[in-house]
Amino acid sequence: MPQRFTFSLHATDGAARTGVISTPRGEIRTPAFMPVGTAATVKAMLPESVAATGADILLGNTYHLMLRPGAERVARLGGLHAFMNWEKPILTDSGGFQVMSLAELRKLTEDGVTFRSHIDGSKHMLTPERSMEIQKLLGSDIVMAFDECPALPAEEQVVAESMRLSMRWAKRSKDAFGDRPGHALFGIQQGGVTRALREESAEALKEIGFDGYAIGGLAVGEGQEAMFGVLDYAPGMLPEDR
Question: Are residues 175 and 219 in the same domain?
């Protein structure tokens, strides 16, 4: 297996496509469904049961793992793969979604986000740099840049300011991530349902340069028709080979 991630395109049908992401921990057939292991477990399933479904990759959550059991503890126990008894790739989100979903428990600044734990009320600071540190401690294969997005509907100016903050955080995430062979950092496009903002975000991400790209800020209240409208054009703004 390669020490760096590669993507090979196998077939297309209009905008739909199939391919394979090759990683040091195995191949991920795309499009892929990622079983959700938010707190380092897929609920009600053993790791071998998850593997038996054909899943190539699991999803973990930086925010929840930061609070419990703690990234440093997971690292001491051998990393998330050993902790979960999962040998295939793992993707961890950055904690950015919780910036929106737990809005009543956080304070947002240019530097990052201060959360109050939903578990015990304790205060925690999450910045792009800390998010990268946590995901490194976890040992995740695909690391997501730290971002934030407002719940929709929202005023266009609010969406624009949020997107531009996320792009500044994306650059800080890339700088903090550094050069880590065998691990990939994905940038996340934002911009709500405004095409011009989506284009601005895509250009900013491409200028920074990432191993892969994701489309974020959807399914946050905009409605299915608006979401599908964004998905009609947003993928074409991002590199085809990532």
Answer: yes
Q: What is the pLDDT of residues 47-100, one digit of tens each?
A: 999 999 999 999 999 999 999 999 999 999 999 999 999 999 999 999 888 767
Among 144, 169, 202, residue at a domain's last position: 144
The reply to whether 111 and 188 lie within a common domain is no
Which of 107, 128, 144 represents a domain boundary (last residue)? 144
Give the domain extent around 161: 149-242
Instruction: Work out how many domains the chain is built from and give that number.
Output: 3
Whose structure tokens read 């929106």? 100
Over range 20-25, report the average pLDDT.
96
Q: Per-residue pLDDT for 116 more than 80?
A: yes
What is the reported pLDDT for 40?
94
Which residues fall within 8 angstroms of residue 15, CB to CB, at 6 or more apart?
232, 235, 236
- Name the burial class of residue 12, with classes exposed (0-12), middle (13-18) and buried (19+) by CB atoms within 10 angstroms of its CB: exposed
Same domain, yes or no, for 44 and 137? yes
Instruction: Give yes or no: residues 164 and 130 share one domain.
Output: no
Torsion 79-80-85-90 (CA) sign: negative
Total Cβ atoms within 10 A of residue 52:
10
Q: Cα separations (Å) of 170 from 136, 193, 219, 227?
A: 16, 20, 21, 23
Alpha-helical segments (H) within the chain: 47-52, 62-67, 71-76, 80-84, 96-101, 128-138, 156-177, 195-208, 224-233
